[in-house]
Design goal:
The complex is a heterodimer of chains A (about 325) and B (about 325). Chain A has a domain at about 245-335. Chain A is built from twelve helices and twelve strands. Chain A has helices spanning about 55-65, 90-100, 110, 120-130, 135-150, 155, 165-180, 195-215, 225-230, 250-255, 260-265, 330-335; strands spanning about 15-25, 30-40, 45-50, 70-80, 85, 100-105, 185-190, 215-220, 235-240, 240-250, 315-320, 325. Chain B is an alpha/beta fold. Chain B is globular, with a radius of gyration of 21 Å. The two termini of chain B are about 40 Å apart. The chains are: A alpha/beta (about 325), B alpha/beta (about 325). The interface between A and B is large, with 46 and 44 residues. Chain A: One of its GO terms (biological process) is peptide transport. Chain A: InterPro entries: AAA+_ATPase, ABC_Ni/Peptide_Import, ABC_transporter-like_ATP-bd, ABC_transporter-like_CS, Oligopep_ABC_C, P-loop_NTPase. Chain A: Belongs to the ABC transporter superfamily.
């Protein structure tokens, strides 16, 4: 279905280039995203990994076009979907892309769903607005969808309100809603952070199945290095608004090329071994209104030298094919 | 055993469910904690794991005396905390302190850090005389790795990790033997989490503290704990040393829980034993008869619904396990 003129089905699915987002607040300009680059192919899972405040959620909001503005502004860069720059098209077309082609699920399903409408109404609304279906048809499709996300007794549960569902079931409802119009890209922003581990395993399994069935591109935004190791194909690690390392999943866990990635991996306790004292990343992530000169990670980095403390910031060095790291000394970090 | 600092016996907490506005009648009870026996020894860390709603936070509240148990006893140094009153209770409480989960809501935003950490001295003035209090608070700040000159700052001037340090300093103020940590690192970012875990370990060595460490993150619990108790619907289903629980779990619930935890190593993908549980945890107001896990258990048979399995050593379980069919299965390591 052609929702936006100029869409070229042979062009890359999603490509974000040099994205800059800033928030203009009364305390100054916070540079939340400082040149993010990544791409996504159909059927692939890209994980965007980072701690709070690194710009991962803002990046997702920019792709979706749900950035609150003001105070948020996209100042530079492009977001290409199948050859169309989403930042250059009118809001009306953007809205169509948002529903039909790129969908998103959020961390907290209870606040993402409308508490005063039944789940069935909220699902059917999508079909009625975007597909012009009749009430009965929309209802039938909604039940089908709830079945697909494995909600038991979908036929009856469709008349329930969000608060009547458990946390895991609510997350399934939101996944159903995101998938209703068969998007090509699904952005999942911390989809299992609020859930218990056994439920998390159910939801991640469901997402993987649905992705396979539909050959969807999945962007998984998370801080959990365990979840990423289980599902991702490629990883982009973000720090202070930049993608500091990008690599296939096996490479990054075996031999990280950026000191931040390496430090993160060393600082997590492991289930399968009783480790010694954890290696700590000293200090705190920088305030986004006052990012350090040069490499933003330099005050916390154990490899930092004079070159790291001076502008320009390290470029994205090519470490290997399909693998980049923004560190002057990536060879040292790799242990070469 | 003389080195046991805390012991609970058949600890029970039921919250009544009432109906009616003027004349409230009790129509049922949420069995949040339903017969828990734990032992904590000097200088050790007992990890308590379980999913939300299993009663682990209620257990924490009972232990520090924020809630009164329905029945059972909590023995600390030979005294039953449940039966103590007045001055004796106040004095006994000094010995067992708590660190809370959310460093953003557990510190009063209108009090300075000095007042927050010094407040325990207002309630227990005999611990440090008035003149020495500022000095004591500054020492505490230094102990937890904060700048002692920041004594007059307010909580909002600190980051999440620093606030958790303030909460830890407050718990240390009365020089307790036991600290109950209820999800102390789950609100923090990974890089900060490690700092706080290391701090807790250092303090334990320095002051000979005993911790009850309550968390849902099994990796963190393994890292810090000497022994681990697994809770499900108000009961402990399995407990033992960390190696026993993580490498030789015998209760099906422990096995399912462990198999669901993602391990940060992509090479193990598809090589781990995955047990995906069906459905959700039943309501603690109406737990299943017999074994409480039987509704989600793949091993369940008739006996499970009729006979409540006792937490004890079994033929095929070298450590206590509450399952009729307990059997070792390593689910953490790759096949």
């Amino acid at each position: 279905m052609d929702v936006v003129p100029g869409v070229d089905p042979r062009a890359p699915l999603l490509e974000v280039t040099d994205l800059h987002v800033e928030f203009r607040t009364q305390y100054g300009v916070a540079k939340a995203v400082n040149g993010a680059n990544f791409w996504l192919s159909p059927g692939e899972t890209l994980a965007i990994l980072g701690e709070s405040g690194c710009g991962k959620s803002v990046t997702a909001q920019a792709i979706m076009g749900i950035l609150e503005s003001p105070p948020g502004y996209i100042t530079k860069g492009s977001i290409m979907y199948r050859g169309v720059d989403l930042l250059g098209i009118p809001e009306e077309q953007r809205r169509k892309v948002r529903a039909n082609r790129i969908a998103m699920i959020f961390q907290d399903a209870l606040s993402a769903l409308n508490p005063v409408y039944t789940v069935g109404f909220q699902l059917a609304e999508l079909f009625r607005m975007h597909r012009g279906m009749s009430r009965a048809e929309a209802k039938r499709r909604s039940i089908e969808l709830l079945d697909q996300v494995k909600i038991p007794g979908a036929k009856d549960r469709i008349n329930d309100y969000p608060h009547q569902f458990s946390g895991g079931m609510r997350q399934r409802v939101m996944i159903a809603m995101a998938l209703a119009l068969d998007p090509e890209v699904l952005i999942a922003d911390e989809p299992t952070t609020a859930l218990d581990v056994t439920v998390q395993a159910q939801i991640m399994g469901l997402l993987a199945d649905l992705q396979k069935q539909r050959n969807m591109g999945l962007i998984l935004i998370t801080h959990d290095m365990g979840v990423v190791a289980d599902v991702a194909d490629r990883i982009s690690v973000m720090y202070a608004g930049k993608v500091v390392e990008e690599a296939p999943v096996y490479d990054i866990y075996a031999r990280p090329a950026h000191p931040y990635t390496r430090a993160l991996l060393e600082s997590i306790p492991r289930l399968d071994m009783k480790g010694q004292q954890l290696n700590v990343i000293r200090g705190l992530p920088p305030a986004l209104t006052d990012v350090p000169r040069g490499c933003a990670f330099n005050p916390r980095c154990r490899y930092a030298k004079d070159a790291c403390r001076q502008d320009p910031a390290p470029p994205a060095y090519s470490v290997a094919p399909h693998r980049t790291a923004r560190c002057h000394f990536f060879r040292e970090v790799l242990g070469e | 055993m003389s080195d046991v600092v805390l012991e609970t016996k058949n600890l029970v907490k039921h919250f009544p469910i009432t109906q009616g506005i003027v004349f409230k009648t009790k129509v049922g009870a949420v069995r949040a904690v339903d017969g828990v026996d734990i032992q904590l020894r000097r200088g050790e860390t007992l990890g308590v794991v379980g999913e939300s709603g299993c009663g682990k936070s209620t257990l924490a509240k009972l232990l520090v005396g924020l809630d009164k148990p329905t029945s059972g006893s909590i023995m600390v140094r030979g005294q039953d905390m449940v039966r103590l009153k007045g001055n004796e209770l106040r004095r006994a409480r000094r010995n067992i302190q708590m660190v809370l989960q959310d460093p953003y809501t557990s510190l009063n935003p209108r009090m300075t850090v000095g007042d927050i950490i010094g407040e325990p001295y207002e309630i227990h003035p005999e611990v440090v005389p008035k003149k020495g209090r500022q000095r004591a608070v500054q020492d505490l700040l230094d102990t937890v790795g904060l700048n002692p000159d920041h004594i007059n700052r307010y909580p909002h001037q600190f980051s999440g990790g620093q606030r958790q340090r303030i909460g830890i300093a407050r718990a240390l103020a009365l020089k307790p033997e036991i600290i109950v940590c209820d999800e102390p690192v789950s609100a923090l970012d990974v890089s900060i989490q490690a700092q706080v875990i290391n701090l807790l370990e250092r303090l334990q060595d320095e002051f000979g503290l005993s911790y009850i460490f309550i968390a849902h993150d099994l990796s963190v619990v393994r890292h810090i704990s000497d022994r681990v108790a697994v809770m499900y619907l108000g009961r402990i289903v399995e407990h033992g040393y960390d190696r026993e629980i993580y490498e030789q779990p015998t209760h099906p619930y422990t096995q399912a829980l462990l198999s669901a935890v993602p391990v940060p190593d992509p090479r193990l993908r598809g090589h781990r034993d995955q047990i995906v549980l069906e459905g959700d945890v039943p309501s603690p107001a109406n737990p299943p008869s017999g074994c409480r896990f039987r509704t989600r258990c793949w091993k369940a048979q008739d006996i499970c619904s009729q006979q409540d399995p006792v937490l004890q050593l079994r033929d095929r379980s070298p450590h206590p396990s509450a399952c009729h069919f307990a059997e070792i299965r390593d689910v953490v390591h790759g096949r």
